[in-house]
Design brief:
Layout: H1 3-8, H2 15-31, H3 34-46, H4 52-101, H5 112-154, H6 156-163, H7 166-203, H8 205-210, H9 214-267, H10 272-313, E1 333-342, E2 345-355, E3 360-364, H11 371-378, E4 386-391, E5 394-395, H12 401-406, E6 408-411, H13 422-427, H14 435-444, H15 448-453, H16 471-484, E7 489-493, H17 501-513, E8 519-523, H18 527-532, E9 535-540, E10 543-548, H19 550-558
Parallel strand pairs: 3-8, 3-9, 6-7, 7-8
Antiparallel strand pairs: 1-2, 1-4, 4-5, 9-10
Helix pairs in contact: 2-4, 2-5, 3-4, 3-10, 4-5, 5-6, 5-7, 5-10, 6-9, 7-9, 7-10, 9-10, 14-16
Length: 576
């Protein structure tokens, strides 16, 4: 896909305003073209005629043109900023939509830290590029062409001298432009590595300290910081060299024009007014070139950023399901002869599972048995290689999975909490919930009492990832969030891991008393939880090896299934 055509689509509906802004910028530049003619008129006509009052008017006209030009520039700048900011906002919206609706499998193929850096940093560079392109580059190019035509009219012989220098300026700009692009790419790569390193430190701080790897990590990150310094210096240096060389070539051209023009004036083949007006025009051209020399590196950076962002836009990963049907869901969900493999390894084989409304269904098994994979398949994150899934008797292929997930409350093995207050974490996804319902959900999750005991209650900050709370408190907040949805199905992955036996029993009792009695699917190692299940499936190496009521399955466990008493105590995590 052509990146410029694609980016241009975000200006749809803004083109008339954009054209007006560009024309305003060009008009502002063209207004200054009258200044060389006024200089010529003043020097060749007004001064020799000793018309001093008219000379004052000429001076006032020149000042007026500068002031009006500045006013137009400010107005068009405001208009263009509004347009480009709106277009970049639309582009950012599209990128966020892409991130949110990418299938879960896509995130196994990308570096999330680099992805974050690209979207945040590269869209900002795109914003800067858009303004440089529209406010500086395009108007300066057009005004520069018209100014060159005016200089031909003023004195074609001097312009011919100037024109001979243009190829030199072009060749230097082209060669330096390549170096600028190369330095920009190196800087972007270094910045991504630096950003990733900072994210690693923040996310893995506990691991770093447990492993006593502070100095090792500091040394590693210092190398990235050093690389960022070197590439940043190189990029800034090449940008400066680009501007400096252009200024130097133009200054040399000015000296040559002055010498050739001075000789022509001395010989009488050119008037002093013609030379000064040409020199003034050349000064304006120099300003246009300066704007170009500033804008071009910004456009180069923006173009590189747009290329990187287009890789995200063009990333095609089909969602596992594309159904659109919204169903009336009562909590009934089924897996029929489901097999699933990750790469070349089978994780589940020929699994049948049925969750019925109002019942508590359990899944038990050793680590890496495939229990969490069952959860991911039921949520539609992945598609089975064989078999099918049904909700309310309707195949997943036909169902709007986003709508289905709204009817499911989920508590993952590691509670998913974000930096914010307890209240914000509980109501996430249910923003319109009233305080009465929130507190009721917290009570059912055995969370209300400990929340109320905190100095700020529900407004207490949980810290990054819930770090300021204990594991049990995190689980109960996640449970309250799931219960608040009033979903017909609750899926709970090890919900009592960090809870003592008394709290576990109270939680299970509360699940049975939830208004409307939702269907509950629990992945667990906890004997108390298994005993509360009406039906339990025993998973081993991706297969259901036993199924029945809790007493039957526990008898199978006691016959030699490799799950010891400690694993069934609820104290071990289930990590696949």
């Amino acid at each position: 896909m052509n990146k410029w055509r694609y980016y241009g689509n975000y200006y749809r509906g803004l083109f008339s305003s954009l054209a007006f802004g560009i024309l305003g910028s060009i008009g502002q530049s063209l207004m200054l073209l009258a200044i060389p003619l006024l200089f010529k008129y003043g020097i060749d006509t007004v001064i020799p005629g000793e018309e001093f009052s008219r000379l004052i008017l000429v001076g006032a006209a020149i000042i007026g043109l500068y002031l009006i030009s500045g006013g137009i520039h400010l107005a068009t700048r405001k208009l263009v900023l509004k347009i480009t900011k709106q277009a970049v906002q639309r582009f950012r919206d599209e990128l966020l939509k892409k991130l949110i609706f990418l299938p879960r499998t896509a995130y196994t193929e990308v570096d999330r830290d680099v992805l974050h850096t690209r979207i945040v940093q590269d869209t900002e560079r795109l914003d800067v590029m858009s303004n440089a392109l529209i406010v500086q580059l395009i108007p300066s190019l057009l005004a520069g062409v018209i100014l060159c035509l005016l200089m031909v009219v003023l004195n074609w012989s001097l312009f011919a001298v100037l024109f001979l220098i243009m190829p030199v300026l072009y060749l230097i700009s082209r060669r330096l432009g390549r170096r600028v692009r190369s330095s920009v790419r190196s800087y972007h790569r270094s910045f991504e590595k630096f950003s990733k390193g900072v994210f690693f430190i923040i996310q893995m701080l506990d691991l770093m300290r447990i492993q006593a790897a502070e100095n090792l990590e500091l040394s590693s990150q210092r190398r990235k910081v050093e690389d960022l310094r070197v590439t940043s210096e190189a990029m800034a240096l090449w940008n400066t060299a680009y501007v400096l060389v252009q200024d130097t070539v133009i200054a040399v051209a000015g000296v040559i024009v002055l010498v050739v023009g001075g000789v022509s004036v001395a010989r009488g083949s050119m008037s002093l007014g013609e030379l000064i007006s040409f020199y003034v025009a050349m000064g304006l051209l120099k300003n246009f070139f300066r704007m170009l020399s500033v804008a071009i590196p910004q456009v180069i950076q923006g173009a590189e950023s747009l290329t990187a962002l287009m890789r995200i836009i063009d990333f095609e990963e089909r969602n596992p399901y594309r159904g659109k049907k919204k169903i009336i869901f009562n909590g009934n969900i089924e897996m029929e002869a489901v097999s699933f493999r990750y790469q070349d390894q089978w994780v589940l084989q020929d699994v049948d599972l049925s969750v019925t409304p109002g019942a508590i269904t359990g899944i038990v098994g050793p680590n890496a048995a495939g229990k969490t994979t069952v959860l991911n398949l039921l949520l539609g994150f992945y598609r089975p290689d064989q078999g099918r899934l049904l909700a309310g008797g309707i195949e997943y292929d036909d169902i709007d999975l986003t709508a289905l997930r709204r009817a499911v409350g989920v508590v993952t093995q590691k509670p998913l909490l974000f930096s914010g207050t307890i209240l914000e974490n509980i109501v996430y996804g249910v923003p319109d919930a009233d305080m009465k319902d929130i507190e009721a959900a917290a009570r059912l999750a055995i969370a209300h009492t400990f929340i109320e005991s905190l100095p700020e209650g529900y407004d207490t900050s949980v810290g990054e990832g819930g770090i300021s709370l204990s594991g049990g408190q995190q689980q109960r907040i996640a449970m309250a969030r799931a219960v608040l949805r009033r979903a017909p199905l609750l899926i709970l992955d090890e919900p009592t891991n960090h809870l003592d036996n008394d709290v576990s029993r109270r939680l299970i009792a509360n699940l049975k008393s939830i208004p409307g009695r939702p269907a509950v699917l629990i992945i667990t190692h906890d004997r108390n939880v298994i005993a509360a299940c009406s039906r339990v499936s025993l998973l081993r190496e991706g297969r259901v090896v036993a199924e029945g009521d809790s007493a039957e399955v526990m008898r199978e466990v006691s016959k030699g299934f490799n799950v010891g008493n400690e694993e069934l105590s609820g104290n071990l995590n289930d990590e696949e």
